[in-house]
Amino acid sequence: MIGRALIGLAAVVVTVAATPPPGASSCSGCHGDVAPLPVISGRDAASIVKALDEYRAGTRPATVMDRIAKGFSRDEAEAIAKWWAAQK
Amino acid sequence: MVGCTEMIARRNLLYGSVAALAMPFVARAQSSARVVVVGGGFGGATAARFVHRADPRIDVVLVEANPVFVACPFSNEVIGGFRDIAAQRFDYRAIAADGVRVVHAQATAVDADARRVTLGDSNVLPYDRLILSPGIDIIWDALPGYDEAAGERLPHAWQAGAQTLLLRRQLEAMADGGVVVISVPANPYRCPPGPYERASLIGAWLKANRPRSKLLLLDAKDAFSKQKLFQAAWTQLYPGLLEWVSLSDGGKVIRVDAATLTFETDFASHKADVGNVIPPQRAGAIAALAGVADRTGWCPIDPVTFESRLRPGIHVIGDAAIAGAMPKSAFAANAQAKVCADAVVQLLAGATPGEPRLINTCYSLVAPRYAISVAGVYRPVNGQLTDIEGAGGTSPLNASAEQRAVEADFANAWFRTITREAFG
Where in the sequence is the domain holding A47, given as residue range(s)? Predict the structure, then answer.
């Protein structure tokens, strides 16, 4: 059991180490490098989390991001933010 | 064991690097992996790129009949005379430069057991995983009187290109005081709010250029996407010009006559000067040939991997898929493509993909500087992609003109971003 698990684990790591957390890959449908949509690649994770917190709470002016942020918990938003912060 | 593997796959998403104990095994498994993607629209182009990007050792082939892709989003602006169709055209050079093998041929058959795709030139492409992103086909003759020949008189313009320009030319040739008729099918079809955006932008052009004309929107439905927002905008912008006739009010078109440009409903006969038939649709033909379309004409899929429920080894994304609450939109196709690409790469590595979450955002223009949007966040529940409660929804009804203009700017930026991710 442990042996098989280790092989599975290693296989995942070798081939798909860059797999984004749930939801993260959708973001680049809008967020690339075209203004006025904000760039999120390489942006500080804390600032992304803060923005998503405020969108979720309805305290930040929004068009669609208030509606989208509500689909993610704080933990999920943090995972997404960390992943985008690590992208170049 | 399945649960155990899932848990490990998910843990890996959080922790990243661990010792590469099984490297030789993986390298052998991966070096020979072949992924074929059929259909080079928003879904297929994105999927091919993202499989290649996730693991450049995988041999990725993108099969697309046309050397140039003409995008549907914003094509209603072309019909309204607000945009040049050149802005809708994309080629495959950048995708090829990435290292994806782009083959311009028609896929004519799929052998799901032998895992190979046959092309129109008789070449055969073997695959380990096949991703189909064939978009839609028009179901000719589903609406009596509407066949391919009729489509030259009553364009559908629901696949962008020559049909888009045909409808544009017909509008330009129409005298003031003419009647434009659009017929809208029952669900499901590509781009649920598309007919209403089209009516809006044709309305905007008529108002400025053929102000005594009228636009009649004959609908086989009683409700539609962003309905309140569209109707409020129509009252504000196009009073007396644009009329929507619901199913209950006799809006369902049951027959057309292309010779006389006549639309018949159960109750009335409407003579058009310019007629646009948005016809019933199904998944692109290769889906049925591959055996992944069901009796509805669309393709049931697993919402974690987008693998067909009917044929193992074949994944279906975009408009052709039955994606639960996700609409048939370019944004959805692109989002599904990325999730599917990750799942395919993981499956080829012997891993179990974790549960995804997907987003859709869909803008509609009701005038060139006035956009509204609908968004949704989705996750698999009981085997279906399901709306996450409390998330998503439409733009507010009471937004200011400035907010509508900001959404129009965002819509334009979205188009440039997503086409760059898929084709640029």
Answer: 21-86
Report the CATH number that the domain containing residue A39 is assigned in CATH. Answer: 1.10.760.10
Residues of A in contact with B27 (CB under 8 A): 14
Q: At what angle do helices A45-57 and A74-85 cross, to 10 degrees?
A: 150
Suggest the residue from A63, A73, A75 to mutate for an interface test with chain B (most B CBs closer than 10 A): A63
The distance of Cα A69 from the centroid of its chain, to the nearest Å, equals 11
Q: Is residue A62 part of a domain?
A: yes
Asked whether residue A67 is assigned to any structural domain, the reply reads yes
Tell me how many domains chain A contains.
1
Residue A4 lies in a domain: no
pLDDT in tens, B319-362: 999 999 999 999 999 999 999 999 999 999 999 999 999 999 99
Cα–Cα separations (whole angstroms), residue B367 to A30, A63, B177, B241, B259: 21, 18, 21, 14, 32
Instruction: Write the ipTM.
Output: 0.89
Of B8, B359, B393, the CB nearest to A12: B8
Residue A9 belongs to a domain: no
The residue to which tokens 């309305």 are assigned: B203
Length of chain B: 424
Chain segment B192-206, per-residue pLDDT in tens? 999 999 999 999 999
Question: Between chain A and chain B, how many beta carbons pairs sit less than 8 Å apart?
Answer: 182
